[in-house]
Amino acid sequence: MRTNDPSPGQASAAPALFHSRGPISAALLGMLPHPLEQADGLAVLAQHVDAAIAATPDILHDDDLQLSLFVLYGLNYGSVVAADDDWEWNPGLIAIRGAIERAFEAALRERVPAVPLPPANREAVAEALFELTKPSTGPSLSKYVARQATDEQLHELVIQRSVYTLKEADPHSWGIPRLYGRAKAAMMEIQADEYGGGNATRMHSAIYAGLMRLLGLDDRYGAYVNQVPAITLTSLNMSSMFGLNRRLRGAVCGHLAAFEMTSAIPSRYYGNGFRRLGYGEDVTWYYDEHVEADSVHEQIAGRDLAGSLAEDEPQLLPDILFGANACLTIDGWAGDHILASWEAGRSSLRVPLAPAERVSA
Amino acid sequence: MDAPGHEVPPLHPLIVACTDGPLLVRGDVELVAADGEPIERTRKVVALCRCGASTIKPYCDGTHKLTGFTTGPEH
C-alpha cells in the first residue's frame, strides 16, 4: 500500500490521526487507510452524505461534513490523512465531494452578503476591494492579541491558524493553471514570494512551523485538528474548493486579494502581542514577514490579479467580489469565535489542550 | 492602462505608483541608505512607503490605510 506521505521539506514527519465527528467522517476515516480494492460501501456512504446534507441546519458550522470535506481535500494535498494514494481520483469519492461542495457553495452564496459591483477595470476593482477590506475601527481579534491576550491564548491562536498556515498559499495555488495571461503572472508573483522566492527556509509555511516549535507546539500537519471548531475547517475548505474548481477561479482570486488586504496590519498587532509577552524576533519573524510581504501582495492582488482578471474575463467580476466577501465573512466568523470565547473566559478550542499535547521546544 | 511589466524585459526596473498607497518596485533596483549602505531586501518586488507613517521604512506596512492617506487624482 502506498501511503499519502508528506512531501520532502514539509515539517511533518507522519500523517497525524484525528477523530471523526459523526458518521460521514467516521466512515471516510475508516475506509481510506485500506487499499482501493476494498471500496465497497461507497454507494451506501453517498446516500448517507445526501441525507446528512439534507438534515444539517447549517453546513458552514457542521463538524461532520466540514471534517469530511477536509479529509477529502486532504487526498489532494497529501500528509493530512493516512490513505492509499489511489483514493485521490476515485469516482465514488469525487461524487461525494461534489455533493458536499454543491451544498457548501450554495450556503456560502446565500449567507455571504452581496457586494455592489465596480466597473470591470483594474483600478476600479482594486479600489472596490480596498474599500471592502478597509480596517475596521471596532474591536478585533488582532487588537485583543496586541493588548491583552495571555500566553495560553497566543498558543491557541497559533493552533487555530495552523490548520491553514502549515499549508500556507497552497489552496490558492490550485488556481494557477486555471488562470491565464496577466492574472496568472500576478498569482505567480505573489505565490513565489509565499513559497520563499526559491529559499525553502523562507517559505511562509516553514517559518510558521518554526514558530510552532519555538512555542513548544507540535508542527506536524493535522496535529491539532481535533482541537479546532468546524468554522476553522470551513475557512480552509472554502479556499480549497475555490482553488480546485476551475469555474470558481474568480472566487479564488477575490479570496486571495481579500486575504492579502487584511493581513499586514493584523500581523503587526499579532507580533506586538508576542513582543508584549517578551518573545523575541525568532518568534515574531512569521508576523514581521507578513507585515512587509502582504503590503506588497495586496497591491499586486488588487490590480494585477483581481483587476486584470476582471478586465480579461468580465463575466467573473461577480465571483471576484463574492470570493473576497466570502473570505471576510467566514474568516470573520472564525475570528469572532476566538474573540468571543476569550472574552467569556473560555478556550476557543473544541477540545482544551492537555499539557501533554505541548511538546518541549 | 496597460499591465505593469507587460512590454518590458522582466528585470527592467519598473515603479508603480499605487493609488492611495506605496510605490511598488519591480526589477533590478539597488536600494541603499543615505550613507550608501545596502538596505536588506529579501523579496523580488518591494513596496516603498510614501505616506510617511510606516513602522518599517523604507518599506510599506499598510499603515496608510489607517491614516486616510490619499495620493490625489494625479497620483
UniProtKB/TrEMBL annotation, chain B:
Keywords: 2Fe-2S, Iron, Iron-sulfur, Metal-binding. This is CDGSH iron-sulfur domain-containing protein. One of its GO terms (cellular component) is cytoplasm. InterPro entries: FeS-contain_CDGSH-typ, MitoNEET_CISD. GO terms for molecular function: 2 iron, 2 sulfur cluster binding; metal ion binding. It holds the Pfam family zf-CDGSH. The lineage of its organism: Bacteria, Bacillati, Actinomycetota, Actinomycetes, Micrococcales. Residues 32-70 form the Iron-binding zinc finger CDGSH type domain.
